[in-house]
Amino acid sequence: MNITENKLVKLAYELKVDGEIADKATAERPLEFIFGTGMLLPDFEANVEGKVAGDKFAFTLTPEQGYGEINNEAVVELPKEIFMVDGVVADELLVVGSVLPMGDNMGNRMNGVIKDVKDDVVVMDFNHPMAGKILNFSGEIVEVREATDEDTAKFFGGSGGGCGCGCDKSECDSNDCSSDCNC
Prior knowledge:
One of its GO terms (molecular function) is peptidyl-prolyl cis-trans isomerase activity. 8% of the residues lie in helices and 37% in strands. By secondary structure, it is mainly β. The strands form 3 sheets. Strands 1, 2, 3, 4 and 11 form a 5-stranded antiparallel β-sheet that branches. The chain starts with 6 loop residues before the first strand and ends in a 27-residue tail after the last helix.
């Protein structure tokens, strides 16, 4: 069976960035995704489309095809006060190189890397860790099959409503995740 829209794909791969292995999945613990649903980079999917189990692949994605160029506007200074826990700045969290989960004023979740800690501000980088990088993928297709309802539920929170973020709680039936469903 060929990799086409809405097929469940399992693949083993190795991602090299700057000559070093940055990520990998084995045949025993493959990467799983439903093709054509936006789970992976579009150009990654384009490079495996049409392949069958047993096919090997190797391709390179430029920053534009991957996670974009580094955006200097994604490096921001935040007031140290926003890092307060119980009324005290949590200095133990503010370590250069640490990754902190954050949220913006629209409720979007993102990870920021601490670049610098100053007296009154924390410099954070919200670029994707692979922004500006050339991504070299190689691997093999392990399995291709029709995606089942269970597969869809696993990746998208089921058919009983939900916001598409995997929580599938009744509070999220509005599909907008505006309620606190912890997803």
